[in-house]
Amino acid sequence: MEKKSPDLSEIKELEFVNDEEPPSLSPPVSYPLTIKHEKKQRPSALSKETPPASSRSLKFLKTYYPAATESDWRDWRWQIRNSITSLQQLQKILSLADHELFRGVGNKDALPLRITPYYASLIESSGEDNAIRKCVIPVIDEYIVKNGEASDPLCEGGHSPVPNIVHRYPDRALFLVTGFCSTYCRYCTRSHMVAKDKCHFGVRNLEEAFRYLESHTEIRDVLLSGGDPLTMKDEDISYILARLKKIRHIEFVRIGTKVPVVLPQRITQKLCNILKKYHPLWLSIHFTHPDEISPEVSEACARLADAGIPLGSQTVLLKGINDQPSVMKALMHALLRIRVRPYYIYQCDPILGSEHFRTPVETGLGIIESLRGHTTGYAVPTYVIDAPGGGGKIPLLPEYYLGRDGKDVLLRNFEGKVFRYPDQSE
Which of 159, 199, 295, 356 is a Cys-bridge partner for 168, taking CB atoms 3.0 to 4.6 Å apart? Predict the structure, then answer.
């Protein structure tokens, strides 16, 4: 008897009746801007509108979602609606280890499980040591809280003068526009927020934040984050960017996102056309491992870069995932090939239950030392610790400056050799 292929669509999940996935906390907005709602894409139009599906994606689709079509797969809303949100679904594609099957209590900020079908295709039939798998599948260690860990270790709540705004630095502000991500990273700094706000706030609920930004003329730089801003509707993204564009003292906007990595189908031509209307606009994309850079991700980044949007990467240093110099160098090189400039390597924040992800600081310093001088400077990001308690990002470097000998400065190069710089200036 032929074995039946597992079908994830057999598992009934919550369906939302409106066209927004997930729903907002507030009702839809009638926009003052001239924005038309997107019509259902025909398959022929879809071929140019969304990134193509790779052969791996199509094989995964046929195996686990046999009732769905390629057009479905390439529809980012379908990806979110059909995301894996239960262990029952996970076990259809993976053999889970005991520590991955555990469901405990005690960590009220424990993240929900959510993995897009596309991102799940990267870990199909993988072993428990797979790097991407470790990033998204819950394990028992998340419920083990150690000293120094906190729900909000960066004290963002203490720097939030109004809802949705974090104003820590003098000339820039963090604008949290949604509480939803299409895929939840288990080491998320804002697990305390997205663990309970698994939805969009709705643009109606952002008015107080807009008023704060309008009244604080010292703010010249706004970072949109959340959650993931690119999981919002085109109309909402355009509305937020248009509102910010009208604030004269805001010189440019950044968007922090992992969508191009976990949901590349979202990078439609329409979205790129919207984003490029609001230059200067920058994207900081969260990459973790070289295995994430698939044909779909490469295409998504190419579309964004072709729209004139500078792309930078932000990578969290994670134990057993990307803490080897060879892995990090491979990631940095791969990013440059898809026109993404390595920007930051973050020391993992001490959120609750994060010890199994955190490396010694010396590991990060060693990685920077393995890059500096051994590859192009464009491939060397800045290693930072976002200081617990709200101290902000503090850069760390290996000790290349060794002090002085008389008026000479002593410097150590990438080979460990010591050189003198004649610092004769008064």
Answer: 159
For 358-400, the pLDDT digits (tens) are 999 999 999 999 999 999 999 999 999 999 999 999 999 999 9
pTM score over 0.70: yes
Q: Given the residues 81, 92, 393, 412, select the one marked as catalytic.
A: 393
Return the structure tokens found at 259: 């969508």
In the CATH hierarchy, which fold is given to the domain comprising 157-396?
TIM Barrel (3.20.20)
Cα 345 to chain centroid distance, Å, stands at 13
Q: Which of 190, 233, 254, 329 is catalytic?
A: 190
Q: What share of the chain is helix, strand, coil (3-state, %, to 5)?
A: 35, 15, 45
Based on the residue annotation, tell me whether 291 is a catalytic residue of this protein: no
Asked if the model's pLDDT at residue 330 lies above 90, the reply is yes
Catalytic residue, candidates 31, 143, 169, 278: 169
Q: What is the pLDDT of residues 150-174, one digit of tens each?
A: 999 999 999 999 999 999 999 999 9
Specify whether 199 is catalytic: no
How far apart CA 291 and CA 198 sit, in angstroms, is 27
- The pLDDT of residue 27 is 65
Q: How far apart are CA 50 and CA 56, in angstroms?
A: 17
For residue 289, give both structure tokens: 């491992």
Indicate if the pLDDT at residue 14 is higher than 50: no
pLDDT band at 17 (very low <50, low <70, confident <90, very high): very low
Q: How far apart are CA 336 and CA 106, in angstroms?
A: 42
Known catalytic membership, residue 135: no
Q: Where are the domains of the chain?
A: 157-396
Rg (CA), the chain: 22
For the question of residue 272 being annotated catalytic, the response is no
The active-site residue out of 65, 114, 134, 181 is 181
Strands 221-225 and 172-176: parallel
234 is annotated as an active-site residue: no
Residue 248 is among the residues annotated as catalytic for this protein: no
Measured in residues, the chain has a length of 426
Q: Of 172, 258, 303, 329, which one is the catalytic site residue?
A: 172
Candidates 118, 349, 358, 383; catalytic one = 349
Q: At which residue do the structure tokens 């400077």 appear?
A: 377
- Share above pLDDT 70 across residues of the chain, in percent, rounded to a whole number: 86
Can you give the pLDDT at residue 35? 35
- Residue type for position 281: L
